[in-house]
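Recap for those who missed Tuesday's class. We walked through two folding examples back to back. For each one, the amino acid string is listed first and its predicted structure tokens come directly after. Nothing is annotated here on purpose, so try labeling regions yourself before you check the end of the notes.
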Amino acid sequence: MTNYTNLKNLFLTLLLLFTCVTNAQEAVDYVNPLVGTDSKPSMSNGNTYPAIAMPWGMNFWTPQTGKMGDGWAYTYAADKLRGFKQTHQPSPWMNDYGQFAVMPLTGKLRFTEDDRASWYSHKSEIVKPHYYSVYLADHDITTEITPTVRAAMFRFTFPENENSHVVLDALDKGSYVKIIPSERKIIGYTTKNSGGVPENFKNYFVMVFDKDFESTKTFSGEQLLEGLEIETDHAGAIVSFKTQRGEVVIAKVASSFISYDQAELNLKELGTDDFDTIKKKGRAAWNKELGRIKVEGGSMDQFRTFYSCLYRSLLFPRKFFEYDLNGNVVHYSPYNGKVLPGYMFTDTGFWDTFRALFPFLNLMYPELNAQIQEGLANAYKEGGWLPEWGSPGLRNVMVGNNSASVVADAYLKNGNNQNYDIDTLYEALIHGANNAGPLTAVGRAGADYYNKLGYVPYDVDINENAARTLEYAYDDFTIYQLAKALNKPKKEINLYKKRSLNYKNLFDPETKLMRGKNENGEFMAPFNPFKWGDAFTEGNSWHYTWSVFHDIQGLANLMGGNEAFAAKLDEVFSLPPVFDESYYGFVIHEIREMQVANMGQYAHGNQPIQHMPYLYNFAGQPWKTQYWVRETMDRMYTPAPDGYCGDEDNGQTSAWYVFSAMGFYPVCPGTDQYVLGTPLFQKTTLILENGKEISINAPKNSASNKYVNTLTLNGKTYSKNWLSHKELMQGAVLEFEMTDTPNKTRGTKSEDFPFSLSNEK
């Protein structure tokens, strides 16, 4: 008996100790910035790089394994590091701009990217959002980085060596460096970019060391030079020291899109703080933002996955503004090349991020999103159009006019509490909705056809025409919603309401799927619903048919009613993952990612269908939403380097997980509603910006208890399949009773279904 008691006491002591250790961890400790880095062009497990940065920081830093100009700047499987790069890359497909690289080394002076590269191991790598450390084996140097929003500090720990060096590589396509030994400083600029910039684009940088230089060199391409200054296609600088074993050299670095003087001003973000203080402040900054959502009652892997996704949701769009000498907000315009007052943000594609990332900002960061809206108004005034994919200026990629959703959703949810120029933004939406832009991805390609026929025809040489039509119809719905809120003329309101029903023009009653239509009104033929591309964007008809976010009931009616609609949803998961890649001529990575997922035609790795599991709520079968959402969370996301199932895409795929783990999702931005799913954790607490809290409690939640039996909202039984944004913002307590058996009576009545335009009174 005594032995049993002792063992019991020991067990309880160990359990208490484990609980204390676990509770001592802060949110940032769960983040793994390497999630998604085990990727390649043919198979994306995220296509991310470890962004060492502050939330929405102007400048990110990343270790660089790829060669200069390679969009895959860091891949987990690589053996060598070529440097540490300041980056503004939103995705490998968009590539980078405003980048330069820093690399320390010892011994023989080797400055080209291949020669200076060093073997490294993940075993000697520490990766946090606010801190990076790695041991460079070939040089016997430990390099550490910790950033601020526009600056960063390096800490190099050198061995004893007569020839220790730091290379600053300003890269090709036009660059300049100048070494100023008396100030222990390197200044310069880089112009390397991937498009979307004015002719005068430069990223100005300054790097200051705390140790005198023994010698200096510059280089042009592969040619080593003796001078202190060079302007050429590919410029670089090298500063050298004698170091003792374990000697630490500190380097402070900052950049600006405005000027050298502004770069110096941005360097002051570091102040007089030492490396560890900057690191501590960075950790605190991340904990502040990540800690706004607290999850409890889950596995360690679920915690790590959740906070890693939350980290990715807090990176883009990046701040593209700076503070002048008087503390005023200013920006270099990527639209006209001028330095102007006011906010500017960039590096986001609305085709991806309108779906969940921007609604997440509207829920948790309305003040920041108000600044983003001001930045969009500035973009319109400076460039004549709203960006659909900005990096940093207008880029010609993807389809749709989804800036309408981003603008409308922000105002409809928080506009009354924020102060920005919604009139200019509304003008921008109307302009973009009725005109083809200077690029096919700006404004609306085929706008004249769409406005005349109600669809973009298949046979008029406008690619991805069915996808454009479906997205334009949804975008028109968001304009309709915004026009009502702004009390626009009845005629204008009715126009956009009518246009929002244009999705019906592409519904094929024979296949009960969306199908391209020719100018003469006949459907295109032959039709293969498994054909990717062609009339659709990075998907097929099985993926895009559900892109009627605003009128799911209308879509269900076309399919023959709710039962037929739900059966069609079922087919997405039961069909084999067959595909027709003939439009592309090869298997694009998005196809392969669907094929290997073993979820039928459900291609969660790409955006068009990510909302689809939530649509069972509109047909009175919410338990199927609960099943498939949990399946997707469990199977498609992990906290490992291969932890995504496709491109992460600027926070969108991450925000899907964050929302879904909380138990609801914004199927239709531009409405007040979130559609219910199934919470992942036993308890989730959201601390809203207004000081209110949302408590989401599911104490019986488990791997098997994935179904919602009952729900109470603020103590009252709640049968609806949706939650109101307005009501949540007032603070709310949700109590989920979870079970392992589907409840096929809750949420089955039409009055419990989420919003559909066809049901609007």
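Example two. Treat it independently of the first, because the proteins are unrelated.
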Amino acid sequence: MNAAGSWVIGLAIVYTAVLIFLGNVVRRRAQSSEGYFVGGRSFRPWMVFVCITGLFSGSSFIAIMELSYVKGISAGWYGVAEMVHVLIIALLLIGNFRKRMMVTISGLIGDHFGRVALGVAGAITAFTFPMWSVATTLAFASAVSAFTHIPITMAVVITALLLLIYLQSGGMWSVVVTQTANNIMFAIMFIIGGIAFFIKPGFSGLAQLAASKPAMFSLDGVGLQLIIAWFATFLINVLLAQAAFQMALSCRTVEEGRKGLLMAFAANIIFIFFGVLFGLAAAVVAPGGTRGMVQVPLYLAQVLPAPLVGLFFLGVWACALGWGAPCQFSGATSLGRDTMAAINPKITDAQKVYYTKVSLVVLTVMMIIFGILRSEQAAWWNVFAWTLRNGATFAPVVAALFWPLATKRAAVAALAAGFISGLTWYALGHWDPAKFYLNIHPVFFGMSMNILALIMVTLVEKAGQWQVGGELTAGKKNLAMGAGILTAAMVLLLVTRFGWLYKMGLFGLVAFLVVVGCFCLVLSLVGPRELEEDCGSIPQERPAGV
């Protein structure tokens, strides 16, 4: 282990001790169920800001910095897609979900579709969240390994245990205080990284890179397919961002929650800028590598003294923790609060907190197992988690919000169909991170089956109880018109450009948009059959006294 590695490990140990201390300080605020799960609905805007920034911006920074080393400035589109995602939640969704006093997405499904749906949705959600946690942790661990030669899997074990220790004590309050500490480390990281950039390579180095590798400064260098996939993933996730909702809905009022989200939206610009800048700087000073999270440490070690390198990577460590902590806590909430409530409807609030703490242990074990199973491909776990969670819960959430005709059996069928079909499609593609079966991304296949199962089971189960049309509001008419245009346009595109779409890997996305268009048509046009007032006879008045 070199000097920089010693500083990285030493500072990480000190920071870990601070986080554990902070988690215990706020223990008294998390005694009640509401205090533990949603901070007593008392968060101020700055609290929502640090939580959302730590969750999304920190993880985006790691992804952008790593990819920009190889692909250049186009890696920034990942952050832009995430910004759009946060903006939509702030402007359109937080008010609706706060009125419902929502805690989790799985809880929302359960409230509308009953115990079985609650249990299944909670279990699926809990199963996928450790995948997101381990994905970012693996990316950071690769950088630590470059300095310290500590095995990547050992770094995952250490991170998982740390998350368990400080989340056990204070729940959502632990999240907010540690996210505050993480945001302070982000600022220190940016300052140190900026100093390194001006020392070497500076703007002159970027000019030389632009001359020798102009593709690094192309806006579509990562490829159109990947950029579209980023935006599609985040747009789909708007309704399913459970960890984000759990933090934002801890606010005192809708207005304060929205303000915190908008502050996080603006702050993400900084993370995009520095993520791209540091990746490009490493490409100039330490070229020839394949992974930015390995080459950036090597670059900094050439430019900065060991203590500053250690502080910089303490900021990257904070990025990993800022993503992992909310994911682990939100997943444990679904398992301990929702799934256990489905098993035992008489469960008390105190028992829900207890089972959530037990669930944190279960998810810690799962996170370690995932890290051991596939430690060489961090990004794969992210995509796999999107496929399983979004593929299972998308249609039931939409139906719970917008389609009262949907049935309990249809919701359970949709959960199972989406989860199993996404898993099967990955298996057919031999679990490859980039080459999918029939060149169709598993998330689009899973979500399509999810939607179709919900529609078909509902219409069959309620045969004779639904109608097409009826009295439509202006909003439903507009939705139907837009959905019809979208569906027709996507079908035309499939028919006329099938070869190009298949080659570019966009066939699955366009086919999914056809299914989404049909789903929107059903939501707007198909509703409960209205009772006929005139059936050919005049209702008789009841005799007096009866």
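Answers for example two:
The longest helix spans residues 306-343.
Confidence is low (pLDDT under 50) at residues 532-546.
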